[in-house]
What does this fold into?
Amino acid sequence: VASPATVSRCGMVFMEQVDIGWKVLLRSWLDSLPERLQEHIDQMKSLFESNVDCLWEMCQRKIKCPVPPTQNWLTLNLIHLFWSLLKQGIPLDPEVDPKDMPAKEKEVKID
It folds into this structure.
């Protein structure tokens, strides 16, 4: 365990996940989205806000897990899943990353 002096010199601040909450993760991810998706931020935010608490409650009551998940863990995994679906469905920036193109264009290139 680090002493208070070490923590002070390094500028570390420890905060519990419960104190921060999952909305901070969502806000941070939404702020980092590409410019093309900025107009859809309100829709994505409401999608997460309407589902994360229900998912958390379902995990607490209905699912038996050997290691209990936290709300932040669930939110982060939902963000990763949603991001992968976004990247698969729309070309985010084909000039920067040629992998970012719709599946139909990928099929055309293969043929």
